[in-house]
Amino acid sequence: MTTRRKLVAGNWKMNGLKASLSEVRAMVDGAKALSGVDLSICPPATLISAVASALEGSAIGLGGQDCHAERSGAFTGDISPEMLADTGAGFVIVGHSERRAGHGETDAVVAAKASAAYRAGLTPIICVGESLEQRDRGETLAVIAGQLAGSIPDAAATTPTVIAYEPIWAIGTGRTPTTAQVAEVHAAMVATLQQRFGAAAEGIRLLYGGSVKPENARELMHVPGVDGALVGGASLKAGDFLKIAAACA
Ligand code: PGA
Predict the structure, then answer these.
(1) Where are the domains of the chain?
(2) Ligand 1: which of 93, 165, 166 to mutate, judged by most atoms within 8 Å of the beta carbon?
């Protein structure tokens, strides 16, 4: 298995006010001491321009948490990938389980959003993951294979793409899979992507997400096939986020 440079992306979800910019500044300061790992923050849309300013000149990347598939138009409340790119963002999360479950997003919708991200020059972070019921029924690998087949556009072979494996039961719960469970899913994802994209699969980074904390980051980030983390709760505080990044470096 190839070793790729790790990426730690912070998903702030619906958290953060202007006061949170002090955390971003602390991340910028702390990141100067880190090497060998890429960092990115995905703040809520209300903060994205301010975070872009705070990140200026730093190596930390910026991302959105979701996007619409269209470039512009009568879609009240939505944000297009072109708008995200216009703020300076380089990434966008698509297909997070909270979007799939809370907003009825199907694999086809997620694939359309990922394609729209490519169109705007953004790297999509495409999320997949099984529910606890699916895991208990022994369906995990089949569910992940189905989500990969349905959510990842063919253009992933030639365009920068990140995939995040996030077991739904590990998100925000403090529960994490065993390293053996993470290794099993990541190995299956690598095999599926190699089968579909051949050597081009080497370029796709595979993150793990779900209750990544400073305490468990070193163990999770050194599971074979894990190229970084998508971090929710622990990305809100600079200290925790930087400790997770240091565990990758
Ligand atoms: P969590 O969220 O780290 O708070 O579990 C991860 C995610 O949903 O991306």
Answers:
(1) 6-248
(2) 166
Amino acid letter, residue 142: A
The verdict on the CB of residue 147 being under 6 Å from ligand 1 is no
Q: Which two tokens stand for residue 179?
A: 């390293």
- The encoded tokens of residue 48 equal 């994205």
Profile the chain (249 residues) by mean pLDDT over runs of 10 residues.
86 98 98 96 98 97 98 98 98 98 97 98 98 97 98 97 98 95 98 97 97 98 97 98 95
Distances (CA, A) of 139 to 110, 134, 157, 195: 21, 5, 27, 20
Residue minimizing CA distance to atom 2 of ligand 1: 232
Whole-angstrom distance, CA of residue 21 vs CA of residue 247: 24
pTM: 0.98
Q: Is 82 in the pocket of ligand 1 (CB under 6 A)?
A: no
Active-site residues, by number, are 96, 166
CATH no. of 6-248: 3.20.20.70
